[in-house]
Amino acid sequence: MTDRTIYTTLAGLRGRGWSDAMVRDLLGAPDVQGRDPRRWSVAPVRLYLVARVEAVERTPEFTRCAAASGSRSSAAEAGAERRRRAVLAAIRAQPIEVPRLPAVELERRAVRHRHLLGARGPGGAGAGALVRWQVSYLRHALSRYEYLLDGLYGSTGRAEAERLLRRRVYEAIAAAYPALAQECARRIGTER
Q1: β-strand partners of 49
Q2: Cβ-count burial of 47 within 10 angstroms (0-12 exposed, 13-18 middle, 19+ buried)?
Q3: Pairing state between β 7-9 and 32-34
Q4: Which band of pLDDT confidence, cut at 50, 70 and 90, is reported for residue 109?
Q5: pLDDT higher than threshold 90 for residue 4
Q6: Which positions ≥6 away from 179 have C-beta within 8 Å?
Q7: Higher pLDDT residue, 148 or 171?
Q8: Once rounded to an integer, what is the mean pLDDT over residues 160-186?
């Protein structure tokens, strides 16, 4: 068994600021390679001597590569920010078209939608519950607008874009059905 205090893994190198390309170019092959006996994995464990890693970190080549890697990450962040701004602009510009239904038909569809989602029994089918069901049905009917979120990956603006899209959808529902405006405002208020 190898002593983990004198070796570091690829994840440990990444934590020290190494990129995969830097490991390949500056360190080369790992000092120890094999299977991890504690867990089954197809990928081999690669260990690098900490003393060798520290020696390479003191070289000018490492400094240059680390600076270049940092500028590439800044470019990636700038690209992600441009995508975020473009998606937010598209969400703001996209008209949200709410289906216009007679009140009786909207109620029928809302109740059916609730039952399709697995709700059992009347479940407090008072006027307030029916309004909530109608807003939920219309929100689901407008889920096709979620394609506007394409292009946002991870956390880079995704939550902000989802909140903006939901707010726009609820505002469109409130404009199309004034009787549902209070419930839409409540849902917008609880998202913050």
Answers
A1: 7
A2: buried
A3: unpaired
A4: very high
A5: no
A6: 131
A7: 171
A8: 93
Residue 57's closest CA among 4, 110, 15? 15
The two three-digit tokens of residue 116, written as one number: 């399709």
The total number of residues shown for the chain amounts to 192
Q: pLDDT-derived band of residue 179, with 50, 70 and 90 as boundaries?
A: very high
How distant is the alpha carbon of residue 46 from its chain centre? 30
Residue 16 CA to residue 10 CA, distance in Å, equals 10
Give whole-number Cα distances, 12 to 7, 9, 40, 63, in Å: 9, 5, 20, 18
CA distances from 131 to 125, 128, 148, 176 (A): 9, 5, 27, 14
Q: What are phi and psi of 101, to 5 degrees?
A: -125, 150
Count CB neighbours of 157 within 10 A. 21
* d(C-alpha 46, C-alpha 43), whole Å: 9
* Chain centroid, CA 71 distance in Å: 24
136 near 66, Cβ under 8 Å?
A: no
First to last CA, the chain: 51
DSSP secondary structure letters along 69-100:
HHHHHHHHHHHHHHHHHHHHHHHHHS---PPP
Which residues are CB-neighbours of 92 under 8 A, at least 6 positions away? Answer: 164, 168
For residues 183 and 77, the model is more confident at 183
